[in-house]
Amino acid sequence: MPFYFEAFVPASLSFLKDIITEPAFLMGLIAFVGLVALREKPHKILTGTLGPILGYLMLSAGSGVITSNLDPLAKMIEHGFNITGVVPNNEAIVSVAQKVLGVETMSVLVAGLIFNLLIARFTRYKYVFLTGHHSFFMACLLSAVLGAIGIHGWELILLGGFFLGAWSAISPAIGQRQTLRVTDGDDIAMGHFSSLGYYLAGIIGKLVGNNSKSTEEIEVPEKWSFLRNTTISTALTMMFFYVIAALVAGPEFVSSLSDGKNYIIFAVLCGLQFAVGVSIVYSGVRMILADLIPAFQGIATKVIPNALPAVDCAVFFTYAPTAVIVGFVSSFIGGLIGMLILGLLGGVLIIPGMVPHFFCGATAGVYGNATGGRRGAIAGAFINGLALAFIPALLLPVLGDLGFANTTFGDIDFGIIGILLGKLGEFFGTTGIYLLAALVLAVLIAPNFLSKNKNAINNPEYEE
Predict the structure, then answer these.
(1) I need a surface site. Which of 39, 107, 172, 245 has the fewest CB within 10 A?
(2) What is the mean pLDDT of residues 275-294?
(3) pTM
(4) Partner residues linked to 127 by β-bridges
(5) Burial class (CB in 10 A: 0-12, 13-18, 19+), 438
(6) CA pair distance 290, 412, nearest whole angstrom
(7) Closest by alpha carbon to 25, among 102, 154, 90, 113?
């Protein structure tokens, strides 16, 4: 019997981890609970549950196409311009960390979900974080940093779970007013751990916008009207980038990536496939929103009053498709300039990761556009790109041995939280971590006493 029990516990943890880290299942589960709470008919429960699952799988498929086609672009740029350094990549650093932190990460992940639901139920931070893979990445970061400070066992699980659950509820709340501008009042929130970069882009946009027109209002002459088609304009833009990168890298190197295919043809195909991936993402997002938001009303009225779903950054792409491309390009340029500055300062070169600069830069462009139009999209995403260079460089020493894997966490929230915890632990030990936990707890419960309003904090009735 003890043997079976010991085998059952890791299997159970693995099962929970696979459910929680798969946003498709998590969204489906939330939609199911909401529809049951609304007492919908069985066939509506079935379709309403499958809709978000299929929508997110479609979004993931599109993201996979985008990511797989960004990889050769990054390699061509690195080879063509002879750049060597650290490439931020969440998946890569997590794969290294899991070799020594597997059980701790899964335990913190489960505890974090429970804390997030409790916080949403009993405080005004009523945001339920649904981007499971980012929760997994954050659980891994917390396990690594807290473990390096000297916190282990149940202490690590509870503290890590509390910080994960708290940030899962607080981070959407911080920028919810900006998010309402992005979505024109749709009842969703940002559920992605590069959120501080998006909110900063929104602030920058407001500062520089000065009545700048939206990226979506760009006037296009009749003969160029085909550029209004997002898929076509994305394809043309990305083909240009790929062809330039292929020419710089040279046919011999590109042939090693293309299995002997002509290097120009390979570059053109990558650009076209990238555009197809973006189109698939948009289709998946529309499917998610069509079913998740109505189903979530059951959660908001019956289970966790006034709750809001916090969803992946790609969900926001459909609100400003042109800003997505503007943001990506501006963020990448910011990343290149940040890399050059780090080189001049004698620091570790942070090579712009194409994946974070596309997904995070694009979202920063959408937020900058919402507050400052075209100028806001360009400036906000550019500053986001600089942050994606400097913050991972500052995080590297905090990660200790994990930082020698030639990679680091790429998104801004990971860097800021890792640096904050690491420095507190360095200067004040575990006392500093507990003081921070007490401060976070006070921030969570204070709004309950300061106002009788029961709505989610920073989520007023939207007014244009």
Answers:
(1) 39
(2) 83
(3) 0.84
(4) 308
(5) exposed
(6) 30
(7) 113
